[in-house]
Design goal:
Length: 187
């Protein structure tokens, strides 16, 4: 694994530090009036989610970990695991459903998701940026409501609740942004 200097740490980097794998969440470069400059880095443990604040000087060396990313197809859910299939080898793997958190509701049959591996361990799952869902229940349009930049609550076919513009009605297909978990556009 490549070693990098403490001032080369960037947000999103995965580091091996104090016997664990950490993601750099926030970085602030500090130049105090006295003494050398350093990077104040907020780290989040990939495995258990705990946080840690560390100071790294430019002379400090840190192990940077490169995660292998593979596209895999979601097949089905069994107990608390997602069953995924490698698109090249057709080999099936089991991933903890908890890695998706609240985004689990947006997972659809046959969807291609990006799986992040460290050696043989699955550390992360990323859904496509946009997912198409159907509006099952929402309030009817009230005349004059479309003039203002307002939104109304809607229930989607996957059980998720989001806010949609007033011109979208029941039965309409909408695109949901998986990063923000919000309405993106109407199909």
């Amino acid at each position: 694994m490549p070693k990098i200097n403490g001032n080369e740490i960037r947000s999103g980097n995965v580091l091996e530090h104090k016997g664990g794998l950490w993601t750099a969440v926030k970085i602030e470069h500090v130049k105090p009036g006295k003494g050398g400059a350093f990077a104040q880095v907020e780290l989040r443990n990939i495995r258990n989610g705990s946080k840690l604040n560390e100071r790294f000087r430019s002379a400090d060396k840190v192990e940077r970990v490169r995660l292998e990313q593979k596209d895999q197809q979601y097949l089905y859910t069994e107990d608390e695991s997602l069953i995924l299939m490698d698109l090249e080898t057709y080999e099936q793997t089991y991933a903890p459903a908890s890695l998706l958190g609240e985004k689990l509701a947006l997972l659809q049959d046959g969807m291609t998701i990006t799986v992040e591996f460290y050696e043989e361990e699955i550390l992360g799952l990323t859904l496509p940026q946009k997912v198409i869902c159907t509006v099952v229940e929402t309030e009817p349009v009230i005349s004059g409501q479309t003039v203002a930049n307002s939104f109304k609550p809607a229930l989607l076919d996957n059980g998720m609740k989001i806010m949609i513009p007033p011109y979208v009605s029941e039965g309409a297909e909408v695109v949901v942004n998986t990063e923000t978990m919000e309405f993106s556009e109407r199909v």
